[in-house]
Design brief:
The structure is a single chain. By secondary structure, the chain is α+β, with helices and mostly antiparallel strands. The protein has a 35-stranded mixed beta sheet that branches. Helix 9 packs across helix 10, helix 9 packs across helix 11 and helix 10 packs across helix 11. The N and C termini lie far apart (about 145 Å).
Length: about 725
């Protein structure tokens, strides 16, 4: 036995001497200077680049390279592609005899790589990638298996320190990178789990945009299962990232890399408007509480698809969950996903001061389904409102309940929505369908009573610059295409008390097509009825809402024209109500045809005056063509006014023929204020009926008679102070 041990010892010593001799011979045959010359020549002639390094040293089965650099294409004058302070690899000698590669250490220090996308779309590393040789024999699966099983890879330590990977896109001016990259792997073993720790800082900047810097840390536990990917796994002990006040944390893992299954959970905190200040400086103040996240999914790499068992986001008692399938194997992604939503408004409102004073409360819940069909518009589901309340001064909404049905993004409806508006009960239903880019809206509303101390600020109509008489309304309203709407409305409101207006009730029915903001293409009908009430300030009232302005357009124009003619068509009942337009009944039926509104019926009755209007208002040209008959009930004598001009600048004049003809009956049957001669009346009546020729002296007499008659008419609409008391 002793002889055997001595023999073995001598053998080991001989092998050691031979190994040392072989290394000495290798260094004699290939000294560092000679290897450097070979490397420089290879880089110049094969890679068409220059390289430099300060030193190349060989250790026992190891090599160290100091201050290495490789140029961009051709030479360093074009720039530096890669550089490193130190590259070192040391391999254990004895395990090689057992077909085991045991790396003692791998050190990469100060590595910098600059990747550039040129303006023509090419990259600065393209010349380093050899073209694929389709004629080269493919490695068989058996060859792969034999080569992979020929050795075992181990490494005591792999260290990457202070490295930078930088990317620049010359087409867009964008820059990005991983800076200060550090990687530490201890005890790498293909057959045993090992730890990996990574840290870096991501950098990103768009052209002329703010720079974003996010430090990231990653801690992993990796098991490669001797390259048996089905049994391999990665456990994510921690992923953390920070940006300003935002903190992101994630943990979980991935198993079975042939059909990966993943499960992660994490948190996101510190999100507020300040973190977006560099990009969106005008955002309102808000701050979100901690957001909790969960993901469970399994992928089928062969089919390029994945099953999402659960994705969840939650903020306090509010949250969103989803599940379904996704695919990425076709030209466009495919998906079939269902989701559930719950939002506690009282909690969410605490996240922002935008809704200060709104005081929303209640719960919104929903169930949805979305697929990739219909060009991504296949979204369906329901949204349920439970005890929703909110304040939007001066409107208070409370105890609102209902369910909204979503058939698709272009088909939304609600059969019943009820609640309290400023303490008064309301019920409503609506539907919306987008058919060939035309919005079809059906709306019904029943409101017991409407009381407003003021109008909401956003409801006030903004003053528009006045149109010129020759400028079409459509051009003035918008220079681009207008959204078309088909509207059906049925509105019933009980007692109304709002600024500038009061009424005992209001009914509206509308069936309009091609409605636009300018109304230039509108067709259909609108009919409304106002129960007794008063307009205390007509001009201010119509400014508050465009729809109100359209409904009361005839009254507004009549009053403006009467004022120019110095005729008081709306005398006050007494001095306390001066300027108020009181009425006992108001009705309107309007027909629209290609933007022209025809006044089929316009009735405005009060205790002192009755007004009837007919004619047209052209929203395309803004032109007016109306005729208004006004009767003061104290005399039962009507006056007729012809109205022309435009909606913004109406003009009017008395219709002498119709007015005089109508005055005759009043003169014959009623006493009229002032002195209107009987002969004048007879002459005017004859002129109106054509019994007297309007030539010569007759014309002169007729004109004088008409003047006297009009003076009498004027007196009908000018109430004396003592009569108003």
């Amino acid at each position: 036995m002793k002889k055997l041990l001595k023999l073995l010892l001598k053998t080991v010593l001989v092998l050691a001497v031979l190994g040392v001799a072989a290394l000495v011979a290798l260094r004699i045959m290939f000294p560092p200077e000679k290897i450097k010359a070979i490397a420089l020549d290879y880089a110049k002639n094969t890679l068409h680049r220059e390289i430099t390094f300060d030193g190349l040293s060989f250790n026992l089965i190891g090599v160290t390279l100091d201050n290495f650099a490789m140029s961009e294409a051709d030479s360093f004058q074009a720039g530096t592609f890669v550089k490193a302070n130190k590259l070192s690899v040391k391999v254990a000698l004895m395990p090689l005899l057992k077909k085991r590669v045991e790396i003692a250490t791998v050190i990469v220090d100060g590595l910098n790589v600059n990747v550039v996308k040129q303006k023509d779309g090419s990259f600065n590393f393209d010349s380093l990638i050899p073209a694929s040789d389709e004629t080269a024999p493919q490695e068989s699966a058996q060859d792969k298996e034999s080569s992979s099983s020929a050795f075992v890879l181990l490494a005591d330590k792999i260290s990457v320190t202070d490295c930078n990977l930088l990317y620049k896109d010359l087409q867009t001016g964008m820059t990005a990178g991983l800076e200060h990259l550090n990687v530490e792997i201890n005890g790498l073993d293909l057959t045993e789990p090992f730890d990996v720790n990574i840290s870096f800082t991501t950098e990103f900047q768009q052209k002329n945009g703010p720079a974003v810097s996010v430090p990231v840390r990653i801690a992993l536990r990796v098991f490669l299962a001797n390259l048996d990917l089905k049994n391999a796994y990665v456990t994510v002990n921690n992923v953390s990232a920070n940006y300003k006040t935002v903190k992101f944390a994630l943990k979980g893992g991935v198993k079975d890399f042939t059909a990966p299954t993943a499960e992660f959970s994490g948190t996101l905190s510190g999100i507020n408007n300040q973190i977006f200040a560099d990009f969106l400086p005008d955002l309102p103040n808000f701050a979100l509480p901690v957001i909790n996240m969960k993901v469970q999914a399994a992928a089928d790499l062969d089919k390029s698809s994945a099953v999402i068992q659960n994705i969840g986001l939650s903020v306090q008692d509010s949250g969103l969950t989803a599940k379904g399938t996704v695919g990425w194997g076709s030209a466009s992604p495919t998906y079939n996903v269902t989701a559930n939503l719950k939002a506690d408004l009282a909690q969410l409102v605490q996240m922002t001061d935008v809704v200060d004073g709104f005081n929303p409360a209640g719960v919104i819940s929903g169930a949805f389904k979305a697929t990739d069909k219909m060009n991504g518009q296949d979204v369906s589901g329901t949204v349920t409102l439970a005890d929703i309340s909110a304040l939007y001064e001066p409107v208070t909404l409370s105890k609102t309940n209902g369910t909204i049905k979503i058939t698709s993004v272009n088909d939304v409806s609600c059969d019943n929505l009820s609640g309290l508006l400023n303490g008064e009960k309301f019920t409503t239903s609506f539907s919306y369908k987008n058919i060939k880019d035309v919005m079809n809206i059906v709306f019904k509303l029943n409101l017991d009573k409407l009381t407003l101390a003021s109008f909401p600020q956003s409801a006030a109509a903004e003053e528009q610059p006045a149109q010129t008489d020759n400028q079409p309304a459509e051009t003035a309203a918008s220079s681009g295409p207008e959204t078309l709407m088909n509207v059906k409305a049925d509105v019933k409101v009980g007692e109304i008390r709002v600024p500038y207006f009061r009424a005992e009730g209001f009914d509206l029915n509308a069936d309009l097509k091609n409605v636009t903001p300018s109304m230039t293409k509108t067709n259909g009908t609108v009919a409304f009825t106002l129960k007794p009430g008063a307009i205390t300030d007509l001009e201010s009232f119509v400014k508050e809402n465009k729809f109100v302005k359209i409904l009361l357009l005839p009254i507004t124009i009549v009053r403006k024209v009467a004022g120019v003619l110095n005729i008081d068509l709306f005398p006050a009942e007494n001095s306390a109500k001066k300027g108020e337009i009181a009425y006992t009944k108001a009705e309107g039926v309007y027909t629209f045809k290609n933007g022209v509104m025809n006044l089929d019926k316009t009735i405005f009755e009060s205790k002192l005056t009755n007004i009837n209007a007919q004619g047209t208002a052209n929203f395309g040209t803004s032109a007016l063509d109306m005729k208004v008959s006004a009767t003061v009930l104290t005399s039962q004598t009507p006056v007729v006014i012809k109205i022309g001009g435009t909606m913004d600048n109406p003009s009017g004049k008395l219709d002498v023929l119709n007015t005089v003809g109508s005055v005759v009956g009043g003169i014959l049957n009623y006493k009229t204020p002032g002195k209107v001669a009987k002969g004048t009346a007879q002459t005017a009546g004859a002129v109106a009926t054509g019994a007297v020729k309007t030539t010569g002296d007759a014309v002169k007499g007729t004109v004088n008679a008409a003047k006297d008659t009009l003076k009498g008419i004027g007196s009908l609409f000018k109430k004396k102070d003592d009569s108003a008391k």
